[in-house]
Amino acid sequence: MLFACYTSHSGSGEKKMDLAGQGKNEILLRVLMQGLNSAHFKPEKLDDNFSKKVYGLYLKRLDFNKKFLLQTDIDKLQKYQTKIDEHVQNGSYEFLDAATRIFNVRSKESQELYKEILAKPFNFEVEESTELDPEKLKFPKDKTEQREAWRKYLKYQTLVQMAELVEMQEKAQAKKDNKTPAKTNTELEADARKKVLKTYDDMYRRISQFDRNDSVSAYINAIANAYDPHTEYFPPKDKASFDIAMTGRLEGIGATLSERDGYIKVAEIVPGSASYRQGELKAGDVILKVAQGNEEPVSVEGMRLDNAVQLVRGKKGTEVRLTVKKPDASVKVISIIRDIVIIEETYAQSALINADKPVGYIKLPGFYADFDNKGGRNSADDVRKEIEKLKKQNIQGLILDLRNNGGGSLQDAVTMAGLFFERGPVVQVETSGSAPTILEDRDAQVQFDGPLVIMVNQFSASASEILAAAMQDYKRGVIVGSAATFGKGTVQQVFNLDNVVPSEFNAIKPLGSLKLTTQKFYRVNGGATQLRGVAPDILLPDMYTYLEQGEKDQDYPLPWDEIKPAGYKQWNNQPNIAKLKANSASRVSGNANFKMVTEIAQRMKQQSDNTNRSLKLTTFMAENKKSKEDAKRYEEVEKGNKPLTIAALKVDTDKIGADTVKQNINAKFIKGLSKDIYLSEATNIIKDQWTGAKAVVK
């Protein structure tokens, strides 16, 4: 048992804690701290450094835009910066209470401030700007400076709304049958201010609904996240809403959301879901607004996660429009028709690439396994079956696509690795204080021993990284990707806190759950996948190359380290990585599509870094136009690519038969692959290996 037991009485033997005479929140904090410090992979030392981490995280999330608190308020709270370690050990919320009192006062003051500012028109002809990156902002030194910060930020929000209205009006006026008279800029500015006013009225109504439990949950999560980004506290109310697989009985848009620093962020796209098929919403996007069909959008900035999810969820066939901010700071409206998750798309799919000689392709969206059904499907068996089908087509190489694969079943990753080499270790798993456990493939059979390419990107994580790392360490295949993989090399477990508090405290239950990082992955070569991920053998240009994505960009991730290598034997017929890398670089440098991708990536980096935005309408509209032109340029990259000759396997099309829905899904799958410039290059890398040792397919 990882958690120590608790009791209201003193006792001997197993470590116990006296909880008698304390309130629910005090007991919750002490139970949580005991769990963190006894079961976390790398427990924090409760000292001034820990205290500073919690202090910084909580204030960052309490006032993420630095619009409420003054520097004088921060000065008053400064005394708690090195005291929180003592507070949490005693079950005290002294810092939280002090910060909440100050925030409540400032919140009421700002409520009058935004109404006053939005009551008057803005002048969008003035040359001025506002900083949008909270990390670059400072807390206002006084109320005069605070008012100016609010004025500029509200002016920016109004400018965003006005730019949308101007664009909508221009489109409407372009229609020949349009008879609606055009509004003046003065009228459009007034309409835009009304929209912003409604947004902030709604936001302050939400703030007024926050209660003590919400504050305690936010504070506890600041404590938990000081250990690592994946350690979290889930309040008792509807835990499923905090896991947020927004499919709600497999209906919805199919995205996993998280709340960080006051923003609602997309953490993961569910394979086979409406978002997955629509293709524009990506992990890392920040959701700013949510609209139902043609209704007015509702801002979700500062909104509680469970409330934001309720806006996004909905029945099959209904439309939701998400206004999202991309990693490059561009803003885009994405329309998604809610639907059920199409289960077939969550499973491994294969296709045949005709490239002089046949090349097999397998897309694996996730490492799935039916843990509740012994006879259920699992990804390792499915990939093995797809390989067998492809071998019947006499494939002379295989591409396994793990792009955007966030992981899943560890055992399936181990078994899948064994499909490509003889028996041996695949991954080492370490629990704090224990010797690493080596997970290995014990099956000597090799399902495919020809040229192998593993495709990854920065969203390939966890089990994907384990498989890619094993193939790289064994020198069994070539890892091809647009960046190092995500770098999540840790394992989490969820504990119900009610189970560790004795029955005499049933009156204060439920206490909620704690998701805790308990283990760490290591490659067979001894290096961790944590933080660094898996660096591709062959690196290809990507739009997000220069943007911050991955574990290393989170607050307080666990560090990279290494342990003793496991004993393993590398593949005999190793690919010539140096030669393959040189050949690929030569092709990519002369490829107009990849050149354009590099140019767009550099432009996106500039946009991401340029967080100081103009408040002049003409300048703002020009910048928006440029961003949209860049987005269209990437669409042209796909259109300009010479299509791959690729087809579904006959055995699969025969199985689909006359089912038109499945026919359309399969046709879309094949069409998308044929335009994929990365898959084209992966195929070329397979072909390069034919000039060396001949592939032998068993």
From TrEMBL:
SMART domains in alphabetical order: PDZ, TSPc
Domain PDZ: 243-313
Family under the similarity heading: Belongs to the peptidase S41A family.
Any coiled-coil regions, as ranges: none
This enzyme's EC code(s): 3.4.21.102
Lineage: Bacteria, Pseudomonadati, Bacteroidota, Cytophagia, Cytophagales
Protein's UniProt keywords contain Zinc: no
Enzyme's top EC category: hydrolase
UniProt-recorded name of the protein: Carboxy terminal-processing peptidase
UniProt keyword list: Hydrolase, Protease, Serine protease
GO molecular function, one term: serine-type endopeptidase activity
